[in-house]
Amino acid sequence: MPGPDTPAPLSVSEVNRRARQTLERDFGELWVEGELSGVSRPGSGHVYFTLKDERAQLRCALFRNRARFVAAPMRDGDLVKVRGRLSIFEPRGDYQLIVEAVQAAGVGELLAAFERLKTRLAAEGVFANARPLPYPPRHLLVLSSPTGAAIRDVLAVLAARWPLAKVTLIPVPVQGREAAPALISALGLLNRQSALDPSRDAILITRGGGSLEDLWAFNDEHLARAIFHSRLPVMSAVGHEVDVTLADFAADVRAPTPSAAAEQLVPDRRELAARLVALAGRLERAQLGRLEREAQRLDHLRARLRHPREALARQRTILAQLEARLVRAIQGRLATERRREAHLAQRLAAHPPGRQLEQASQRLARARGRLLPAMQRELARQRERLGGLARELQAVSPLAVLGRGYAILEDDAGQVIRRATDTEPGQALTARLGEGRLRLEVKRRLKG
């Protein structure tokens, strides 16, 4: 057992907790540079990896809420700089760096600058060009190195596919400090000259592959703007298929390689020749088919054709038949109308209008003689009924009661006062008499 001078032992949890607090307090935030190794992305969205150099390694954790702000891909072997705080994962006692931000180091710095400039130019709309290039262009203007492999590939593909292509090479440097200013100047000159020569209708900017530093001239901000403002449509074919530059984004069309650019710019004469042969065969077959169909139609029409005399005779026969039918129809109609007329005359003679008018006059005189006495009797009956109703109304009328000396009291709202309790001393009332009205004031209320 420990003696009285031996300090009490600490638990493992307490040791790890104190160590974590010491690391976080003493080191604070720091930047660390190293090579990525063992990059892991579990389903939680966190990223775990190791930073290493020639002599040591450091475990790192990049949590999901920070990982979504890292734009560049994190791959084993990349050289990066990370910002974070040293800590200890207490359950396992793992010493680690909690990462807050990741930046590429070395070449990665160029990529970071590229991404920042790309984001800014995209927000300004510099990458909004999407004009179609003429197909094929009447006069293609190529900005490239006169001694590079790119121009040789372009010219070889154009000669093989479309020997009629008119191409003008504008020699410019495609690497180094002079490249971007030379390209910008050439673009401005070509746009000014196109106003004098409208046949110049397309520009190709191209060079072969190389390292990121070799292609950096095509990531120049001013060059991207010059391509965006070019009145002539621009195709960019810089580097290999995996290489992407700001010039590619600013151009109207991007080709992955110089050879692919030439293939996109002009048709293949061999394909066109084969297509022309196929179309000629289709046209010949269509013509033969049309001739055969028209010959068959002509035979059919010839078989249907008759001499005009036959048609006229047939029409005369039809006309005679129609004429006979018309005569019979008219005669039948006339006979029907005559019979109808005779029938109406018989009815008129049997019932002459004069007799009917005389009978109607007699009926009217008799009705008038009955109407006047009936009206007088009805008027007398209604007068007697009206008098009775008037007497009944007079008997129940409030005015008759008022005529016998009674009065009706009303307040200012026109409400009838039925009980003394409905009034208050000093209240003004109106008394309605048989003849006229009185304005009264309540002095006091009496009981009983």
Automatic annotation (TrEMBL):
The UniProt entry, under Pfam families, shows:
Exonuc_VII_L (PF02601), tRNA_anti_2 (PF13742)
Keyword field: Cytoplasm, Exonuclease, Hydrolase, Nuclease
Q: Which reaction does it catalyse?
A: Exonucleolytic cleavage in either 5'- to 3'- or 3'- to 5'-direction to yield nucleoside 5'-phosphates
Exonuclease VII large subunit C-terminal domain residues are: 129-440
Among its keywords, does the record have Cell division? Answer: no
Q: Cellular location of this protein?
A: Cytoplasm
Major location (coarse): cytoplasm
Record NCBIfam families: xseA
Describe the function of this protein.
Bidirectionally degrades single-stranded DNA into large acid-insoluble oligonucleotides, which are then degraded further into small acid-soluble oligonucleotides.
Protein name listed in UniProt? Exodeoxyribonuclease 7 large subunit
Species: Halomonas kalidii
In the UniProt record, what gene is named as encoding this protein?
A: xseA
